[in-house]
Known about the structure:
- The chain is an alpha+beta fold.
- It contains 2 helices and 6 strands, in the order ββββββαα.
- The radius of gyration is 16 Å and the shape is globular.
Amino acid sequence: MNTEKPMAGDTAQGEKLENGSCASASGGALGTKAFNTPMYVHVFAENGEALVTGADWMYDKIEWATVDDREKNFEELDLLPRLEIMRYNLKHFVECVRNGVGPSFDAETSTACVSWVT
Length: 118
């Protein structure tokens, strides 16, 4: 892991759950460029499991099943191009600064999302 010099887009969230298990999610260039693709998050939960995959930090596929399913479910997301997403994020940031408001997706929302998934 790159600990000396942060890379652009670094973000991470870790969560320790009541049952003793842990969950983590990353959203940017936290390690080496060699591990930039493919990316995955494998989620194990009491009532099922999911595998979310993608490339270059853009998760676009999910396979999931509940404990009662006999076969996996598969969904693929149509993502916007990375440049368009970056433009939207930058525009949103500038609007927040101009209007003196916080972002629509903050640390509390991120933590709640990780807790909900796990």
